[in-house]
Amino acid sequence: MKKGIVKKLIAIAAVATIAISVVGCGSTNGGNAEKKEGTTAKATGIEAIKSKGKLVVGTSADYAPYEFHTQVDGKDKIVGFDIEIARQFAQDLGVELEVKDMAFDGLLVALQADKVDMIFSGMTPTEERKQNADFSDIYFTATHKFILRAGEEASITKIEDLKGKKIGVQKGSIQEGIAKTNFEAGDIKSLEKVPDLVLDLKNKKVDAVLVESTVADLTVQKNEGVAVAKGLEIKDPDGGCAIAMKKGSTELQTEINKTLKKLKDEDKINKFFVEANKIAMEQ
Ligand code: ARG
User: Fold this and answer.
1) Confidence of residue 15 (pLDDT cuts 50, 70, 90)
2) Do 137 and 242 belong to one domain?
3) Among residues 12, 66, 104, 105, which one has the fewest Cβ atoms lying within 10 Å of its Cβ?
4) Ligand 1 mean position to 242 CA, how many Å?
5) Where is the Solute-binding protein family 3/N-terminal domain (predicted)?
6) How many Å lie between the centroid of ligand 1 and the Cα of residue 122?
7) Residue 198: which CATH number?
8) How far is the CA of 39 from the centre of ligand 1 (A)?
9) How much is the average pLDDT of 214-229?
10) Is 123 a pocket residue for ligand 1 (Cβ < 6 Å)?
C-alpha cells in the first residue's frame, strides 16, 4: 500500500515539470536607485539578513506539499518542499531560518512592511504582483484542478457543468482570480486556509475547490470522499511558482537563483517534493 503511494508520488513528480530559468521573471531593476536602498535601516537585502543572522520567511502553511503543519516528536512544525528550499537558501547564506505562518493574502503586505525577508509560498509571479515585489526564477510549475465530492466527477467534466455551483478558492490566490473570470461573484467562496475549503466541500458548503494540481492530487489521496475533476485542468498562464522578495533586491535575487539552480541541477527540488508528499501522506 505504502509502496503504491510512493510510486504514485514519484509519478506525480515526474509529470510536474520542474522549470528553472524558463520564464524570464528574473528581470532585475538593475539601477543605481536600488543600490541606495540597501543602505537604509529597514532594507531586507542580503547584508541585512546576514547581519541579523537569520532569514525570515513568510508562508501560508496550508498548502501541502508546498508548506504545511505536521507533528515532529509531538511538536508542531512547518514542513514542505518550499520550506526545504528555504532551509537550503538559509544554509547557503550561513544564517538561521525562521518561518512565519500567515494568511496567504497577507504575505505581500508583510513583505512590504519588512515583517518577512522573502515569501516561500508557492506564489505565482503574476504581472500584478511584480509591481510590488521581485521574484526568483520559476522553480516549479503545475496546472490548476478542481477537487469535487467523490461520485460527482462523472457529471462535472467541463467548466459549464460548474456554473451555478459554489466554487471554493483561497483568498488572494490566482485561483480566486481564475474563478472570478469564469463564475458569478455570488458563486465564489473565498477562505483564508485551504484545508477549510476541503472541509466545506465535504460538508456541501461548496461544490468544488480550485487549487494547484499538485495540491489537488495530494488532497484526494489523503482524504476520503473527494476526487479530482477529470478533464478540467486549467493551465497557468503565469508559469508556476517563484520566491518573492522586496522590489530592488537585486543581490538577493541573484543568490536565490543560484541556490535554485544548484538544487535543480542536483535534482533536489524533485526529491524535496517527493519527500513532502510522503510526510503529508503519513500524517
Ligand atoms: N499559486 C497560487 C498563487 O500564487 C496559490 C498559492 C497558494 N499558496 C499557499 N501556500 N497557500 O496565488
Assistant:
1) very low
2) yes
3) 105
4) 10
5) 54-276
6) 5
7) 3.40.190.10
8) 32
9) 97
10) yes
